[in-house]
Amino acid sequence: MANTTNDLLAVAPASQNQFRALRNELFLKRQQSPIKTILVTSPIDGQGKSTVSANLAQTFAQNGDRTLLIDANYRHSDVSAALGDKTQGLAELLAANAAPEQYIQPTAIANLSLLAAGAVPEDPSALFVNPAFAQLLESLQQVFAVVIIDGDTFLQHADMQVLATLCDFTLLVVGHKQVKKTAFADTLQALKTDEVTRYGVVYNQAPSKRSDYDY
């Protein structure tokens, strides 16, 4: 395993309750049907999905769930950027067909590990349509109670639609007054068309009169 890090994983005190509430909502859904893999995506860029991914992963870990956060956003790898550009991760793991523990990194937070994006491949979308990724995801579920994937934008990249079908739950992050109604509607329609039956919406960056994260 690589060196311990927690550069992108600190939760602002004012937001802790909102993330706990989101975790609890997902916990209740887990009682209805297992949820071990969660894709965090958004209709367009700039909605805060990497922050939601990292903080939600930390909240699960603090609850005692052994949690893995995967950076699968090669076009804007905010999680991996906090670790340094030379950090090896998902791309190298799939290319080498190696044991996952060789690339999974511990963090300073108990129960929380991280799999960085790794080097940007020539065709990022090819990673997620490769059967090796589905096999990897299946094996990780045998080790971790929760696997949270920080993904790319949903509408602009068809590979995220493929990834959503591989996950148990898709969490759509939508910024306050940042996503047009048509884009939001198109995303929901795509989720339904792709038969992604389990998904929820995080309403992010809301005014102070409302909760920061409405679910």
Automatic annotation (TrEMBL):
CDD domains, A to Z: BY-kinase
Keyword check for ATP-binding: yes
Domain CobQ/CobB/MinD/ParA nucleotide binding as annotated: residue spans: 38-175
Keywords: ATP-binding, Capsule biogenesis/degradation, Exopolysaccharide synthesis, Kinase, Nucleotide-binding, Transferase
Annotated GO MF terms: non-membrane spanning protein tyrosine kinase activity
Lineage: Bacteria, Bacillati, Bacillota, Bacilli, Lactobacillales
Organism encoding this protein: Lacticaseibacillus baoqingensis
Protein name as catalogued: CpsD/CapB family tyrosine-protein kinase
Domain of life: Bacteria
TM helices/strands, residue ranges: none
EC top class named in words: transferase
Entries under PANTHER family matching the protein: FERRIC ENTEROBACTIN TRANSPORT PROTEIN FEPE, TYROSINE-PROTEIN KINASE
InterPro entries with a match to the protein in the record: Bact_polysacc_biosynth/exp, CobQ/CobB/MinD/ParA_Nub-bd_dom, P-loop_NTPase, Wzc-like_C
Pathway entry: Capsule biogenesis; capsule polysaccharide biosynthesis
Enzyme Commission (EC) number: 2.7.10.2
